[in-house]
Write the structure tokens for this entry.
Amino acid sequence: MMFDVTIVGAGVVGLSIAKFCSERGFSVVVLEQESRAGEGISSRNSGVIHAGIYYPKHSLKTKFCISGNKILYEYAKHKRINHKKIGKYIIATCNEDVDKLQNIYEKGIENSVPLDFLSTKTIKEIYPELIIEAAIYSPNSGIIDVPELISALEGDIQHSHGLISYKTKFVSASKKKSGFHILCNDGDEFSIETRYLINASGLYSDVISKKIDVLDDRHIKSVKYAKGHYFKYSGKHPFNNLIYPLANEYSSGLHVGFDLSGQIRFGPDISWVEEIDFTFDESLKDNFLNSIKSYWPEIDSSKLYPDYVGIRPKIQNHNEKMRDFSIIDSTVHGIDGLINIQGIESPGVTSCLSIGEYVTKLIKS
Ligand SMILES: Cc1cc2nc3c(=O)[nH]c(=O)nc-3n(C[C@H](O)[C@H](O)[C@H](O)COP(=O)(O)OP(=O)(O)OC[C@H]3O[C@@H](n4cnc5c(N)ncnc54)[C@H](O)[C@@H]3O)c2cc1C
């Protein structure tokens, strides 16, 4: 079988690329090792539509987050995907953090993100129950039902005659004169031919990269795993918006998030791990409580329960500066027809449609 485009990974990134490629008329197949789409990073995140505040001005993270925010809201509306622009407060819980908050505000303004800086008095009127010295309000932040987003993308791909092959593992790729010979396994080994190969395999992007015979190690980033836990809260609470406290010496800055049913959750925390392992460490509850109490002293500890774990696919070590998304094509690695994608951590959900459009434009007819 011969395809124009073969994509490894049916997370939000691979599916978005497949959507735009199949809508452009290319024959497309997505290879997904699991029995459903989105079983990797895409089903284990906060589901926040970010506004693009924190990242360097000229980074891909800023570019795709800001454009992705706009088109994701439009797409969600058009496809009737459950979403809500509930807004987000980034909060300083002590006086010493107000300068840090000011820096974040300036960075966001530099990125042209609409933001308001709120005084103690104003934010105290909005959230009298919380300990807050000052806050930034981001009206364009919101939440989206990611499983519904995944279903909508799958529907678009099928509508444009693209294929998603579940329970199908990418095994290896060898370069041919034009395109690639791909070995797959769905219980039996078989092969396909493709003009373009796109690696969108998330946490496995380094493993897959190493199985592409012509890709030089210099262009492969090793993936480091940064685990994050979420606890859900079943009691009464004062929150109507996303709340992002800054990390400081008293608190690890655990966020308040929501799902579309209104259930609130706290997290994610961060711990660097050696393996992809989604085991929940319940002993973290006290750390969570201490951190949350730094801004919400009234939390009822008996109503905080373990929820789930996500793992970030970092392409830097924990003592290094944040790295940008890595999307490289022949202009970087010199291999015609290969687009290698790595390090799509947050804001990957927000950015997915923009990444899909961008990658599709790299493909020649
Ligand atoms: C804790 C956490 C919180 C986050 N919160 C947010 C947020 O609030 N907002 C936001 O915008 N972003 C957020 N993100 C980031 C976002 O979730 C990711 O950027 C995004 O889901 C990445 O999608 P992906 O398609 O690249 O990867 P994945 O969803 O992991 O998809 C890759 C797929 O490749 C498949 N695969 C791997 N190897 C093979 C193989 N050999 N053969 C076939 N298939 C294979 C996997 O099974 C998987 O389905 C968060 C991430 C984490 C970890």
